[in-house]
Amino acid sequence: MNVKEFFEEQKNKVQKAFNASYEDAIRMKNSVTNYVGIQKKKISSDINNYVESFKESGRKVTDTWSYLPTEEPGAVMENPDVVLSVPAIITRHGYTCETHTVLSQGYLINVHRIPYPRSGGKISKKTVLLHHGLFGSSADWILNGPDKALGYVLADAGYDVWMSNIRGNKYCKEHVSLKSDSKSFWNFSWHDVALHDVPAIIDYILRNKGEGTTINYIGHSMGTTILFAMLTLRPEYNEILKSGIALAPVAFFTDLKSPLKSLAPIASNVAYVKMLYGSHDFLPKDSVLGRMISSCGFDIMDSMVCKNVIFYICGYNEKQFDKNLLPVFLANLGTGTSWKTAVHFAQEVIADGKFQQFDYGSNNQRVYGTDTPPTYDLTKITLPISLFWAQNDLLSSEKDVKLLYEKLPSTAQIYKVPDPEFNHLDYLWAIDAPRLVNEEVINTLNRVYSEA
User: Using CA atoms, how far apart are residues 352 and 375, in angstroms rounded to an integer?
Assistant: First the structure.
């Protein structure tokens, strides 16, 4: 075989091998294509079967459940105000609500605002700042509903209504640096609120609303204590505020008639033990009393027990009691305060008629430079203040209110609620609150502006 024949033979072998590989590749490609096609058909068939099956099961489900509007048993809340927040309750009743956050000593204080009547209109320069009592919140001023609750009544009367919250309650559980379960977070009493928080809120309102704004302060129970303390600690606010209204004023406890009087001497010891075990907030929802409050619902027996406990502490008044409002009230009671706040009030009870700052005992010298805590100097108060009191109020007695009245300036006014059974909490929830309290509050504010 010559060289030419040799190379020709090799070329034929290479060509043959190439053709064989190409045919194998084509056969493989066809095989893969056939496999993919079969799988596509199988998947398509499975999907179609699933869809048809789902359609059939859907037709069966539609017989018992539908996207169409329907009346579902048990879906509607018996009283939404039991579970809704303050802004939600206000909005539900057709009013506008705003939430403003004020920074004070690192605490983020949420203030709820009803800027104008339910019917709308311009925001008035006439402003009212409402402050709740112990265990309360801004909810106190709206629980009685439109036409009765003072927050709504004032808004409908043309006032710009701001409702504060105390640090530590459910609307003020935040601090810019402190953990809410720390001792440092809860180391405050109403003294600190009077010295720092309320002035910060007033300043915020004035900055927000601008020139020509006038602010009237209305407090209930502890809210009045804060007012009196603030006007002595920060006397410049006597000139900044327009007037003050104190509902169930609390400054002196020389004639406390409530059974809580018997608990005052042991309050400090109880607080010490509680804080020793890491409980720094007073009456949290998971405490024994907190759970009892939470259990008070629409059930008749629960309501009777809870109602009588409240009457026992605050004064009995069945006539002004709306049993349907009890679950709403209790749902918002005990929203959080500090042991120090409760102990400060207990100290006032055993302070021999003194309205004084927190008693640190053996540490008074280090804190105040004196063996006893300083008293709040009520002679520094020059703001026109109206005191509202009730004969059956076991926490704010006639004797103590009149003692306070005598220490206030000559511009002070005093008003006795014309119902001999009216108690400490009736200011917030009484059936006849519009006639017994609200009308006089409006009249008092009208006089303030007419005399200006």
Answer: 12
Secondary structure (DSSP) of 80-102:
GGGTS-HHHHHHHTT---EEEEE
Beta-bridge partner residues of 247: 220, 388
* Residues noted as catalytic: 221, 393, 424
DSSP code of residue 337 = E
How much is the average pLDDT of 279-305?
A: 55
Contact between 252 and 400 (Cβ < 8 Å)? yes
| pLDDT per residue as tens digits for the range 175-208 | 999 999 898 999 999 999 999 999 999 999 999 9
Joined together, the tokens standing for residue 384 give: 């026109």
Alpha carbon separation from 104 to 30, 107, 175, 192, 200 (Å, rounded)? 78, 5, 9, 10, 6
Which pLDDT value is given to residue 310? 67
Q: Report the C-alpha gap between 311 and 306 in whole angstroms.
A: 9
Strand boundaries in 291-384, DSSP class E: 337-338
Measure the CA–CA gap between 179 and 452, rounded to whole angstroms: 46
Cα–Cα dist 207/386, whole Å: 27
CA-based end-to-end distance of the chain: 134
pLDDT in tens, 72-125: 777 787 788 888 999 999 999 999 999 999 999 999 999 999 999 999 999 999
